[in-house]
Amino acid sequence: MNELIRFERVTCRYGRDPVLVNVDLAVAEGDFLGIVGPSGSGKTTLLRAIAGTVDPIAGRIVRTDAAVGYVPQVETVNWYFPVTVREAVLMARIGGRIVPWSSGEDVAAADAMLERLGLGGLGGRHIRELSGGQQQRVFVARALLRRPRLLLLDEPTSGVDVRTRHDVMHLIHELHHDGLAIVLTTHDLNGIAAHLPRLVCLNREVIAEGTPREVIRPDVLERTYGAPLEVLQHGGMPVVVEHYPEVEAVSNVVALREEHHEHRA
Amino acid sequence: MNIARSLATAFDPLHYAFFRHALVVATIAGALCGLVGVYVVLRGMSYIGHGLSHAIFGGAVASYALEINFYLGAGLWGLVSALLITKVARRRTIGADAAIGVVTSASFAVGVAIISVIGSFTRNFEAALFGNVLGVTMSDVLVVAGVGVFAASVVFFQYRELLFATFDPEVAEVSGVRTGRVDTLLALVLSATITATMNVMGVTLIAATLVIPPVTARLLTDSFHRMLWISTATGAACGLVGVYLSYYLDWSSGASVVLTSAVVFVVAFVISGFRHRRLPATAADVH
After folding, report:
1. Beta-sheet pairing, A181-186 with A198-203
2. Burial A27-58 (b: 16+ CB within 10 A, else e)
3. CB of B281 within 8 Å of any CB in chain A?
4. A1-31 pLDDT, tens per residue?
5. How far apart are CA B246 and CA A231, in angstroms?
6. Which of A84, A252, B40, B212 is surrounded by the fewest CB atoms within 10 Å?
């Protein structure tokens, strides 16, 4: 497989604080890579460095001239901005045209992309009038209109319900099946990360890299998240169990009270 | 007979050259501020018009003290202030509103300090503060028209880059938009707009002409390109009608333009309120 991008001991920082330290990473054509780690671990910075908007202060990033598509977190989008779905998608067609209006060819390409992603007929709607899954698809459509070979998605399922998460992941798997290399970040270890072919556990530095079975392990997760996490095996898949002692203590008290009332009755 | 008399009364002010200049300059200035204001409002920097006009006032005083051309000195001063605001606002710990407050207040203070040193400053002082649309000369008209053509050209030829960088600067940069260059260009257009229209609208009222037409347009449309058209047309119409009304009502022309804009905003607010009441809740509302 041809490598699209390779990080060699890359260090990035904002101000004085290093956000990524000595990161080694390679993404090749057809790869499907998930990046997991706690908040502030450098996941988004890693995506930005891959996209080329953050420069390393040390190390080297070797990249090909392959186009990169970037899908931001939908939570960062200004939903009151006056753009229709078609206008948002057509932003990808930047340059090559002096006049402000889009060519018929560009509009047809945008409409075809919307149709392909199940948004046919919604081009004239304001972006805020769509459901969560449809909104995510609009930004995937915008990224795909650049004909990228590498698609970067920053927490594509954050803040959406289970059904929408399933729809979004189904779409991403389809795109990967069509030959697109994918790198995404996620906080969802059980719903997303465990189902990806390859994971990187990140906490400023790469803690571990491999298949979910190789990296979703208590010792790796403790080093990544700084807290003990239990991992069970269910149908050959690792399942992370989170414990909340305070909640469990309250639940136990409630259960004991209910038991006590039943006994008195 | 009454209609003829009414028409004669309506056209009466047009007999005066100064009033014709005032109408032309107020219409162009209104359109210009309406156009540029769309980007100002959508970038969440509505306060920048107010702040930058104060900053440019400092530049105007400095130009007077150094005996250099007003438009050149004040325009450059405004550009540097706008670039400083953009740079300071990028620090996430500060934010755009605080950056505007720091840079423009300091710049205004420089102007006040220069006045206190040189002892007097009377040249167009009232015009700069409150606007004097009826005192504009042909050269003022040409300057405002020139800046109008410049701003329209930037918006026309950089339409996609400006839109993308305003909506989603991070992805715009990934997609090949040089957002730093776009921000600088917008700062240049904004400072030129404020410098050119300062004598027309005045430091104290210019912010309203940058903000009211775009927010009125935003109430009436969900499309970006329609917002540009509606905001520009609203600004132009309010400039024209406001100056016309000021003749008959004997009000300050700047205040008349701003109050006309405010009335149009209220009408748009009521209309959009009725429109939204009849529409179902959007998906984003039920997240």
Report:
1. unpaired
2. beebbbbbbbbeeebbbbbbbbbbbebbebee
3. no
4. 688 999 999 999 887 788 999 999 999 998 9
5. 76
6. A252
B168, B221, B222 member nearest A72 (Cβ)? B168
Instruction: Give the pairing of strands A230-234 and A237-241.
Output: antiparallel
**Which residue, among B156, B152, B161, has the nearest Cα to B182 in the 3D structure?**
B161
> Given CB atoms, is A79 within the 8 Å cutoff of chain B?
yes
Query: How is residue B269 written in tokens?
Result: 């607010």
Q: What is the DSSP string of B100-164?
A: HHHHHHHHHHHHHHHHHHHS---TTHHHHHH--GGG--HHHHHHHHHHHHHHHHHHHHTHHHHHH
Q: How far apart are CA A259 and CA B103, in angstroms?
A: 66
Q: What is the pLDDT of residues B143-169, one digit of tens each?
A: 999 999 999 999 999 999 999 999 998
- What is the structure's pLDDT at B263? 96
Confidence category of residue B121, pLDDT binned at 50, 70, 90? low
Confidence of residue B124 (pLDDT cuts 50, 70, 90): low
Report d(CA A139, CA B145) in Å as an integer: 39
Burial class (CB in 10 A: 0-12, 13-18, 19+), A21: middle
